[in-house]
Design goal:
single chain, two-stranded antiparallel ribbon, 10 helices, mainly alpha
Amino acid sequence: MALYALVFGVILKSRPMVGTTEVPYVVYLCCGLLPWTVWSSFLGRAPQVFMENAQYIKKIRIPKALFLVQAAIIAFIPLLVALPLFLALSWALGFTPSIVGLLGLVLVTLVGLVLCCGIAMALAYLNVFIRDVSQLVPFILQAAFWSLPICYAQIQLEGGLKQVLQLNPFSGLINLAHAAFLNRSLSSGADVAHAGLMILAFWMVGLFVAYRTDKWVVDEL
């Protein structure tokens, strides 16, 4: 956080705006960085989930999705630790968050985990058969991070680039995280629709991959 704040907040003088009001850069940064840390942590681990639990999958008849749920819960716990520190930092910088805004940020993070579960399902199954998947995911996550309005405000982007970066499945959720905490409301219907569409699309992909490969997973493990 300190590094991003130095580069974007001090050197590049990024000044994020909420309506006509300027908000502290670090507060804006953390609104996107905290949920993204949860999502990227889960997705970074997801390809290895079945491999790490191979001994249980081969011996016990248990839904494999439970291992993904376990990984999602583990990724979510650090957010609960970070929130009190974030609140203290916000107050120190002169921004007073509301309970509704805080709950909204947590809710958006949980909705993002629902999206991640669809992606993680596809990654976990594919990695059983194509072991290089786990090596590619960190690079994809890094590219996804820089295509999201976390370190910079979306308003700073020009039209064509803005449209391309909105293809990122998490872009609507990041906008909602900012809206929830900074605006104290989930005000953007377009971002809600974008998040819902991405969840539906990636869950369909995840379920399709699971349906086509599940019966061979135990043999491959």
